[in-house]
Amino acid sequence: MPDHLLEKIAQLNWHLIQQQIDESGFSKLPPLLNKAECKEIIDTYENPDHFRNTINMARYRFGIGEYKYYEAPLPPLVQQLRDRLYPELAKTANRWLEQLGHDSSYPAALSEFLDQCHSEEQARSTPLILKYEAGGYNCLHQDLYGKIYFPFQVVFALNQREVDYSGGEFLLVEQRPRAQSRGHVITLEQGEGLIFPTNHRPTAGTRGYYKTTLKHGVGTITAGTRYSLGIIFHDAK
Asked: pLDDT tens digits for 104-135?
């Protein structure tokens, strides 16, 4: 992993990021991947040796497009992003548990968390690359693959909107109890990332914190081809 990428992750303003996550449920990251690194990840798409499974979204009525789950061992860039982003997000994950009245349970290192997954027979890798052509989209969903899951995941834009594709905005919908849902439409430039909840987030109410459920998806691509990288921290059953 290039030193400059390690430095970018280390130099992120994690205090601000955690504050944004607590307030809004999500936080955009500045460009962590440069153009060459984005291309390196995109180029893995055509090499079947990198993947354990390919999903045609239309077949399962998930949307229109295709995504592929990486096989372990992950490509170095993907592995390092997963390793390096996890520890700070684990701090927020444990704070969220405490706000909801639970004990902290997420270890400081990704390897220890994956040991927990594997103890529940969740041993299949989950980071994935997604490809959409014009007319493609992804229905609102959650990425839960077993009893154990990490409350955050991160998506990275791998090519440039309004150059390589148009449309395809990231969608995040918050399903508030006893209230109408709230939607967020988020655009990402090449190399930028977005941290968002996997399942729910704590929301402050008059009687303490309560759970608000979130689902995510992708709006319709109107032209070109859109690639993105999904970093999911828990493994699948």
From this structure: 899 999 999 999 999 999 999 999 999 999 99
Chain position carrying tokens 């229109």: 64
DSSP string spanning the chain? --HHHHHHHHTS-HHHHHHHHHHHS-EEE---S-HHHHHHHHHGGG-GGGEEEEEEGGGGTSEESEEEEEPSSPPHHHHHHHHHHHHHHHHHHHHHHHHTT------SSHHHHHHHHHHTT--B---EEEEEETT-EEEEE----SS---SEEEEEE-S-BTTTEEE--EEEEEE-TTS--EEEEE---TT-EEEEESSEEEEEETTEEEEEEEEEEEPPEEEEEEEEEEEE-S-B-
pLDDT higher than threshold 80 for residue 3: no
**pTM of the model as a whole:** 0.96
Q: What is the C-alpha to C-alpha distance for residues 214 and 174, in angstroms, rounded to an integer?
A: 5
Closest CA to 64 of 226, 232, 230, 236: 226
* Spatial distance between the Cα atoms of 57 and 222, rounded to a whole number of angstroms: 17
Give residue-wise pLDDT tens across range 167-203.
999 999 999 888 899 999 999 999 999 999 999 999 9
